[in-house]
Amino acid sequence: MHVVIIAASSYPIVEPFAGGLESLTWHLARGLRERDVDVTVFAAPGSDPGLDVTYLDVPPLWLSQVARTDVAMVPEAWLRTHHAYLQLMLSLRHRGDVDIVHNNSLHHLPVAMADSLPMPVLTTLHTPPTPWLEPAVDIATPRNGRTQNHFAAVSSHTARSWSHVTRARVVHNGIDVRRWTPGDGGTDLAWAGRIVPEKAPHRAVAMARSAGRRLRIAGPVGDRAYFEARIAPLLGPDVEYLGHLATHELVTLFGSSAVTLVTPEWDEPYGLVAAESLSCGTPVVALNRGGLGEFVHPGVGVLLPPGVSDQSAAQAVERAAGLDRAMCRAHAEASCSVSRMVDDYLSVYRSLIPQVGAA
């Protein structure tokens, strides 16, 4: 089986990952190769050399002076991305050695052009509908007849959010439980993720202070204005910002914490941080948004309504701190592993590739 994986071009596929999409793409490519699958990855410049990536890149765009004087010209960066995906899709039309294309980008062209390819295209939906992608998915989903377009979603919640335009099978994200190893715990609380308003680390600070516990925050600053206005003033002896940590450093953070707080103020498509924490044996207290409730179950965490009071959240922290860390680890191994995710995707591939499915 030869699988082509198309990554998103916004960020390189390299650790520390910018987000769940990049993590999934990296782990999927490596996991497939461990099963002796031939994998070709198209991704942004700067991606992990170990993935043997073909870059999704276009040299500085040549445009005539006449074209550049068009007052309706879109930003050049947008044009470069557009042409990178266009060139890739056109090149795949002539490939006879590829069995399936797995599209993990957020761009509309791989979906819009899928029916021009000789092989099936599986697109994983990583986010809620977006203005660019939703119409492409809608048009590419015929109400009858055959199509090369097929869709998966990272959670049942995400699949439902797209159900008005397409039907997507569910393949939950996975984390490498061989790397996210259990720790002995501690008394501090942890929070990790992109530091942006929709991830709401300021909520975690309020919860931690109400619980009377120290909080350690890690992650890239995705919104500098938000960080300076809402997070930096809260830092002090009881709230520490650790920066954007590598995987092994996050393993130490989670493994040495009593509880990990997950505080989305948007509907998380999946909630990778919660899975990583559980694999380290650390229970989770999470605001019940999006796909989190599909794997944060009683016994390994506490789900809270989004409008919960800080006092109620503090009580939840104490309940979670008493949960069995070994049970958290066992649940992650059974339900949240990369191995399970890769097996699930291989099953989907086989169902879409006629000659493989028949064999």
Account of the protein in words:
The protein has 359 residues and is α/β, with parallel strands linked by helices. The protein is 37% helix and 15% strand. It has helices spanning 20-34, 65-68, 76-92, 109-112, 133-140, 156-161, 201-211, 224-231, 247-255, 272-279, 310-321, 325-335, 338-352, 354-358, and strands spanning 2-6, 38-43, 53-55, 100-103, 121-125, 149-153, 169-170, 189-192, 215-218, 239-241, 259-262, 284-287, 301-304. The chain has a seven-stranded parallel β-sheet with strand order 3-2-1-4-5-6-7. The protein has a six-stranded parallel β-sheet with strand order 10-9-8-11-12-13, with helices on both faces. The longest helix is centred in the N-terminal third of the chain and has 17 residues, at 76-92. This is Glycosyltransferase family 4 protein. Residues 190-320 form the Glycosyl transferase family domain. Keywords: Glycosyltransferase, Transferase.
Number of domains: 2
The strand count comes to 13
- Taking all residues together, what is the mean pLDDT? 93
Quaternary structure classification:
single chain
Shape: globular
- Structural class by helix and strand composition: alpha/beta
- Tell me the CATH topology of the largest domain: Rossmann fold
CATH superfamily of the largest domain: Glycogen Phosphorylase B
Q: How much helical structure, as a percent, in the residues?
A: 25-40%
Let me know the largest β-sheet: 7 strands, parallel
CATH class of the largest domain: Alpha Beta
Protein name: Glycosyltransferase family 4 protein
Organism: Terrabacter terrigena
Domain Glycosyltransferase subfamily 4-like N-terminal: 19-179
Domain Glycosyl transferase family: 190-320
